[in-house]
From TrEMBL:
<dbReference type="InterPro" id="IPR024079">
    <property type="entry name" value="MetalloPept_cat_dom_sf"/>
</dbReference>
<dbReference type="GO" id="GO:0008237">
    <property type="term" value="F:metallopeptidase activity"/>
</dbReference>
<protein>
    <recommendedName>
        <fullName>Ricin B lectin domain-containing protein</fullName>
    </recommendedName>
</protein>
<dbReference type="InterPro" id="IPR035992">
    <property type="entry name" value="Ricin_B-like_lectins"/>
</dbReference>
Amino acid sequence: MKDIVRLVPAGPVEQLRKVTLWMSPQYAGFPPTAEFHYHLAWLRQHGRNPAMAENVEISNVLIYESEARRMPLFMLHELAHAYHHRVLGGGNADIQAAFTRASASKTYERVERFRGPGVSNSFERAYAMDNAHEFFAEVTEAFFGRNDYYPFTGEDLARHDPATLALLQKVWQTPQTPAPLPQSVPQVPETVSFDSRCYYRLTTQWRGDGLSLDIINDGKNNTPILAKTAMVPGQLWKLLPEANGAHRLVTQWRGKGLSLAHTAGNQPLLVDTAAAPEQLWRVTPELDGTLRLTNLAQDASLSLDILYDGKANITPILARTRHVSGQLWNVTLVAPCP
């Protein structure tokens, strides 16, 4: 709940504070869940407390922690139902129009779904397509944090459904700063080069400059991780030029004898340096100045990413290429450099 107060503007938060949260044991014949109760009649029909009408009931207390790993803002989802119904009006014309437009676009018919840590993602019809109420609650999760269906984040939403993003900015009263008009069409540089004498720090747009690509000191000393940024040799990388415009990634700590490679299970590891395509990386500039890392042994369908596990979110993997912040890397020169 602290995250909701931190993420949502103060005005809407004051409205959300008026919603009562009821804790209940799981009911026989019903799955454990969290739900906003729209109808007094339904509560009476099912023998539940009528005072819960137009409020939120939580009957998944025993699995709350695991559900939060899969859906970090699932409580905001239910509170969004309350905000929609009690503040904006359940029949809000703008929300209905956004849902109708999204449904007609067919762009939510087959999207990626995060099914939880250690479980393979699936592709299916977005839950947002059930009705206008679920649509609003689902895109609200993405807007303020992360949803379990694509569009996962506000960044995804901006690309996937910018009209709905604008609606959310309006109804949730978030600041809207229009982007400056470009003077000309921006051009993505075709190549990027690095000084082979120098060391660089690798951070992601998602996790920010406070976490850097490092190597776990566990005896094997070959597994990459995002760790708290520090001036340590495991976080100092050289990007050495190879043939075909590719680069080899080595650390100051382990030296040139071990190179970052794509291995089984799409796991990057440090392995003995060899003339192998699995150890060669394409470093491709993106329009926003970040860089994408793909492996020469694969086509560009897989990019170096950070696993979203709902916990620490610090494990590098190779994942399906998408324009997501975990795949957008900043490569920063570490001074001094010869």
